[in-house]
Amino acid sequence: MKRNIVIAAVTAAALIGGGTATALASTGDDQGSARQAANTKLSDDGNRDDKDDRDDRDDEAARVSSSDVTAPEAIASALKHTSGTVVSAELDDEDDSDKVVWKVDVLSGDDAWHSVSVDPSNGKVLGAHTDDEDDTAQVRAALKGSSVTAEEAAKAAAGKGVVTSVGLDEDGKDKSWEAETRKSGGAEQDWKVDLKSGKVTADRDDAQDDAADDADDQD
Q: Residue 176: pLDDT above 70?
């Protein structure tokens, strides 16, 4: 008897609260849809990130193939125009345009910074302007006692592939030249060039970052 009363009460509650039951069911569906949408967004974001990475590699490959002038040649050309110490050289788009140039940063004897643009097709200087930098003392200190110039570092790294950039790493304990190379197959690699011996070694920090990125991709 009691069991029948309980069943009747539950049935009545279900009939009276039908709207609530429907609402709860609807809420469950909404949560499922939200989870599905979130998973879809994560998948789309991952696909976009992969596409962006491929686009960056394609852009870099295009820049390399468009340059007939090597990093050492671009540095030598910049120094003929503006005397001083080259701190970095990079093959890059000019002011985010489609035009590719070598950008060479030169620290002159009066501690003025100059950015020199070099044509990658013929090595001619396209222009130069003065930059404001606040790390002059740090750069001078890092280069003190160095016997390897940026040009020599670029030549040393050229044995590993086409040098697309070279620059001074003045931070941390182990100061060095850093060079980025690209091989014909498109693979990029970062290298450290000793400031005194010119010895080229693989950038272990870069290798660790690549390994971490690969692990994230697998997850």
A: yes
